[in-house]
Design goal:
Helices cover 61% and strands 0% of the residues. It is mainly alpha-helical.
């Protein structure tokens, strides 16, 4: 049986999402108005929202229900 190689990410999820959003916005800024640019900007916004939610979910102030 083959053993699966497991690579652990070196950056946090928040850092990866923010870098993805930054790269997507840079690519979109090089394009003129087109559906591809709109899609890149939409995905960048989604990544930023996900990073914000991850930050909120992992904050020390958040307590589990009792």
């Amino acid at each position: 049986m083959l053993k699966r190689r497991r690579l652990k990410p070196t950056d946090t999820l928040k850092d990866r999402l923010i870098s993805f959003a930054k790269e997507a916005r840079e690519k979109a800024s090089q394009l003129q108005s087109c559906p591809e640019k709109d899609e890149l900007l939409r995905r960048a916004r989604q990544a930023e929202i996900a990073a914000h939610l991850d930050n909120w979910a992992t904050s020390p102030g958040l307590q589990p229900p009792k």
